[in-house]
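Checklist before submission:
- one chain only
- standard amino acids only
- sequence pasted in full

Submission:
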Amino acid sequence: MVALALLVVALIAPRLSEDRRDTRSARGTPTGKSSSEAPARHEPAARIPATRPHLKARAPQPSPLPETPPPAPPTARAPADRFINPRAAIVIDDLGQSLSHLEQLADLNIPLSIAIIPGLPASSRTVNEASRRGIEMLLHQPMEPREETGKNPGEGVLLTSMTAGDLRARVRTNLAAVPGAVGVNNHMGSKFTEDVAGLGALMAEIKEHGLFWLDSRTTPGTRGIEVARAAGVPALERDIFIDAEVNADFIRRQVRRLIERARVNGTAVGIGHPHLVTIAVLRELRGELLASGVTLVPVAALVHKAPEIGTGTTLAAAQADKGRAGEPADSRKTATP
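Returned file contents:
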């Protein structure tokens, strides 16, 4: 029996070995190699190791899009922008005390406006002469100052204690004394121009007469422009007090500041008074003013639209391809009469 079993094994063993070789060949295992060297069975892609030592590493490829250039370093601000055809107006307040004031101002032969206080000794004659010469007039309306100033605004004053009806009646009377006035500005009024109710009555009367409002800004707390615009009254405000100090050097500096303000902002309004030194400095600087490149105009020319096309176009806007520039305007100088 043992011999028979050995014979059977000898006959079957070669066939089994051949079958195993065929099976390995069908599975892709090279013949003659151990089964431990054969690749593992196919696994999902997620389980294949990320690194393959038998593959050559690829060099990083450049991005197809160019990198965003770094932001340019900040540059210093350019000099102040300048307006093409800037305009400035000079208003001389407190006319009516003497006709000689008007005559001296007229002899300057420069465009300006005058503000006349009603009821002064020469108010009526000043109105007549200004009308004859074609000089623009405003009603210089007296208004209540602060008590601590100790100043008397004169007759026809508007007080915060008055009713709206009384205020409007007084404004009508004063306007009748300055026929031909194109606008109204305040004489003193550091208290009244902070009173919204009183200003509302004033603006209603100004609107009814088709006039404009010029705020002299005798107090930083004035509400004049705000109330005027709410009432639909054309309005503008003073930029420079020319003779807040009655001193020739100070007045020269202020006149030049007015011109510079107009160059920067397009328009500017300066208010002065008929002091002999003020008139003398204006006469002295007349040539400089006319050659400054800033056009002097009556104040009404600045009221409706400032700056306008042609007169309010900056050099930067007109030459946009050559760059833009800007400079903040300096603060206003105020007085508190």
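Reviewer check: DSSP finds ten helices and nine strands in the chain.
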